[in-house]
């Protein structure tokens, strides 16, 4: 179970001088905590550059989002969400020769249903600009792959052309998850709510209005991936998920056509794949090969 402290614990020098023995680990305990602490500062900077009320005005003239959910519901399944990913904290640079627009166009040509765009600069070498650039170059629905901790980022995603926004259950309280999901829907988008444990899945299923859930196969503490995460979580909650018609996505660690069939059998309608496609020179060919058993 990964738990995070939403902000960096801070003790002023004056308080420290009082000499109480405060058992406070001031270093981040894992990568997710480190990323979320950095986001706090980043969003503060974004707000200074463009205040929320200005951003909200821009939303009014932004184009209507595409149907992300509909794209994943179309046969044959699972549909591919291809991720535009230059680097990650665990792998470093994944693709040195990185042209986000060209990559997105290859995904579209090869039959991906949606595209995931990493917007985090510090840890994934992504960019908010990639989202707008890709929006102009392809017609597929786009997922904003961000560490959302404020509604501000949701409005920004909508302005930059996203149709879906990632919400990570591990970093949000139930209240924030529910509230952010509602904002995303109110803006005409859909939330991909990401879980990686049974406890998180149960939390999310306890919430009304969730219609798209991603199971992350990556262990967030040691970065290993294991597709049995998708199998085991789905097996334990399948009747409820099916009854509610929730669209399920398997995320991370999908490398081969066999992997694709394995998560299909587990019951997902979509797959989110980055690294294994980004590592290959010809992305179009790589997608066609990955999806060759999907009929
Ligand atoms: O590169 P992979 O193993 O195919 O994984 C893609 C995607 O699932 C992964 O990038 C991801 C899943 N959840 C996230 C949350 C934040 C950043 C990245 C991610």
From TrEMBL:
The keyword Cell membrane does not apply. Belongs to the TrpC family. This is Indole-3-glycerol phosphate synthase. One of its GO terms (molecular function) is indole-3-glycerol-phosphate synthase activity. Pathway: Amino-acid biosynthesis; L-tryptophan biosynthesis; L-tryptophan from chorismate: step 4/5. It comes from the Bacteria. Residues 32-290 form the Indole-3-glycerol phosphate synthase domain. Its EC number is 4.1.1.48. Keywords: Amino-acid biosynthesis, Aromatic amino acid biosynthesis, Decarboxylase, Lyase, Tryptophan biosynthesis. It catalyses: 1-(2-carboxyphenylamino)-1-deoxy-D-ribulose 5-phosphate + H(+) = (1S,2R)-1-C-(indol-3-yl)glycerol 3-phosphate + CO2 + H2O. It comes from Gloeomargarita lithophora Alchichica-D10. The keyword Lyase applies. Pfam families: IGPS.
């Amino acid at each position: 179970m990964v738990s995070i402290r939403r902000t960096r614990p801070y003790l002023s020098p004056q308080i420290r001088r009082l000499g109480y023995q405060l058992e406070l680990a001031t270093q981040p305990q894992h990568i997710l905590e480190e990323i979320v602490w950095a986001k706090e500062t980043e969003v503060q900077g974004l707000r200074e550059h463009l205040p929320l009320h200005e951003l909200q005005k821009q939303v009014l003239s932004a184009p209507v989002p595409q149907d992300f959910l509909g794209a994943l519901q179309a046969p044959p399944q699972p549909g591919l969400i291809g991720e535009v990913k230059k680097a990650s904290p665990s792998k470093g640079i994944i693709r040195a020769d990185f042209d986000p627009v060209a990559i997105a166009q290859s995904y579209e040509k090869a039959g991906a249903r949606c595209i995931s765009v990493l917007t985090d600069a510090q840890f994934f070498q992504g960019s908010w600009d990639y989202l707008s650039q890709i929006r102009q170059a392809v017609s597929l629905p786009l997922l904003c792959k961000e560490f959302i901790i404020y509604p501000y980022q949701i409005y920004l995603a909508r302005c930059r052309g996203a149709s879906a926004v990632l919400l990570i259950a591990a970093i949000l309280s139930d209240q924030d998850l529910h509230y952010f999901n509602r904002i995303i829907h109110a803006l005409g988008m859909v939330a991909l709510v990401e879980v990686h444990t049974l406890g998180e899945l149960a939390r999310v299923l306890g919430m009304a209005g969730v219609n798209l859930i991603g199971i992350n196969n990556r262990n967030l503490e040691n970065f290993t991936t294991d597709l049995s995460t998708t199998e085991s979580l789905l097996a334990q909650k399948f009747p409820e998920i099916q009854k509610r018609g929730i669209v399920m996505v398997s995320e991370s660690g999908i490398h081969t056509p066999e992997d694709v069939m394995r998560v299909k059998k587990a019951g997902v309608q979509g797959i989110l794949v980055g690294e294994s496609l980004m590592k290959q020179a010809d992305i179009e060919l790589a997608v066609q090969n990955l999806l060759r058993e999907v009929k």
